[in-house]
């Protein structure tokens, strides 16, 4: 929070603090979305998160597979999907086949098995490229949030709600916040790439 001294009388500049809090909240949400996207990237190891974006029709509405079946990982490279309603086996298989997972489901009519193949070098490179794209998109979103905050600071200065010095301090603080979140994104991206290369 910024403390501005008006002739010995200190008051908190709530406008600036609120703008920074809102920006930090949006940046946190951006990083959370990135984490979800990274979790959905198939890395040769079975992970139920890869099914988060696969929707199946269930009584007239589209629902994620995890809402219509139990999903477990009995072995490191196998996902076992046990639909609560046996009539959902075929629709779930079709949803997986038409998704971008690139895995063919096996079924015995009661449960569905997804066997994750080991990643070859070409597939690793493709996935690493996808990781970098997600990270770059998140950085663009973070910078956009920073730009919006700086515009709000300019407006406050124009309206004489803050001084030029206040605006400069606020902009410096916003840059530090931006750098912190860009570093988080780089860390998440590097960790995912390392995971892809080590499997």
Description:
The chain is of the alpha+beta class. 55% of the residues lie in helices and 18% in strands. The chain has 4 helices and 8 strands, in the order ββαββββαββαα. It has helices spanning 14-39, 89-98, 121-158, 164-198, and strands spanning 3-6, 9-12, 55-58, 61-64, 69-75, 78-83, 106-107, 112-115. It has a 4-stranded antiparallel β-sheet, covered by helices on one side. The chain has a two-stranded antiparallel sheet with strand order 1-2. Strands 3-4 form a two-stranded antiparallel sheet. A hairpin with a 2-residue loop joins strand 3 (55-58) and strand 4 (61-64). Helix 1 runs antiparallel to helix 3 and helix 1 (14-39) runs parallel beside helix 4 (164-198). It is elongated, with a radius of gyration of 24 Å. It starts with a strand and ends with a helix. Mean pLDDT is 86; it is low at 1-12.
